[in-house]
Amino acid sequence: MEQPGVRSPAPEALQLVQDLVNTVDLEAGADELRTAEDAAGWARGRGLSGLGYDAGALADVLTLREALRDVCTAHTGTDVPAATVAALDDLLERAPLRLAVDAEGRAAVRPAAGLTGAAEVTAAVAAAIVRATADGTWPRLKACAADTCRWVYYDRSPAGRSRWCTMAICGSRAKMRTYRKNSRAGAREAG
Asked: DSSP alpha helices (H): ranges in the chain?
């Protein structure tokens, strides 16, 4: 998936999460997941079965997408809304994971067998988040601070304090708004 500016995609463990959240372009109003068929195709394109999609599954996938956007926004220093936490808890409860150990003794968290639809996507996302939490990359998946954007990007900055998907677009707009606001306030005080 093409990233804004010159950003590289998230590390492999987080690409599924980033791809899901970025299926909608809030500024342009373009949404890749308009129908259950769209969601099934999107899932198949990411190595999932694509089975079990109906209107309810689509609604759950869209709820998951927006909840993840809120969580990624929290990675910039805000709190996750209580309603989002409750919605995520509900989705995760229906998407069990299991611990798998291979012949060499390596362990990995994987979605339980037989999941379809939103439960399959949710479990795959949850497993990806577990891997990213273990390797320390999860907190660097962030949503752009611009309310009109909220694109999810991977923050590769040394300090991990990036706030916008791209400084050239969203960062510049925010700085210009602040400048104009401060200029107007200064003019009122002087007049």
From this structure: 12-21, 36-44, 55-74, 82-93, 117-135, 172-190
